[in-house]
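Narrative of activities, Objective 1.

The group set out to show that a structural description can be obtained from nothing but a protein's sequence at a throughput compatible with the screening campaign. Below is one input-output pair from the validation batch, recorded exactly as produced.
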Amino acid sequence: MESEHKNRLGHRRVRQKARAFIAESWQSQANLSFFLALLVFVGFVLPSLGFGRKDAKLYSDLAFSLVVISGAAIAWGQRRLFLLTVFVSSASVAVRWMAYRIPTPGLQLWADGWALAATVVIALVLLVQVFRNGPVTHSRIQGAIAVYLLYGVAWAHAYHITELLHPGSFNPPGSMSSISDFAYFSFVTLSTLGYGDITPVRPISRSLSVGESLAGQLYLAVLVARLVAMEVITWQSKTNQNSE
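Output recorded for this entry:
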């Protein structure tokens, strides 16, 4: 009985160490590199090639489902956060495909709302990993880039919701007629390029645009400051260990 109890304790410790390793190593389970590559491929490569122009809604829903599912896996190893992410992501995918099958304004509004929630939750999961204590690694950099791209995706859904609730929020009229238009305007605003070909004309769309441009710049400033601070702390700790 005593040896069996020790074996159970040993197995439990192994499982705990395995979970800790999984939580520390993003790529072992969540495959952050795949998630980031998928974001770039779906958001920039495919649209530039003109892929899915005939069935833009279908391909965008497929791409969104893949991104959300792979993004939810990043929370693996953090039970509560993982359950929350899976719930929100599953609901967003389900409602989105319902809106595809039954294209009504009400369902589309719900689909965008859940998609916005899923994007925000996945971004928060990544931010927890990016700004946690520890050395600056390539996984942390990949997570920071993914969060920046998710900002653009989240605001694109926010603009779409605004246009559904307040038609004519952007000028010229009809300029925001497809999903790619909202993504284009979002990333142009996030990077503060401001080409001027599409402009917000209603108070809510203007407020969202200003908020996105400020959030994008503040995120980059805070990110650089945090990464530099962590690198300095890591360098100092290594120096102290070597001097002992």
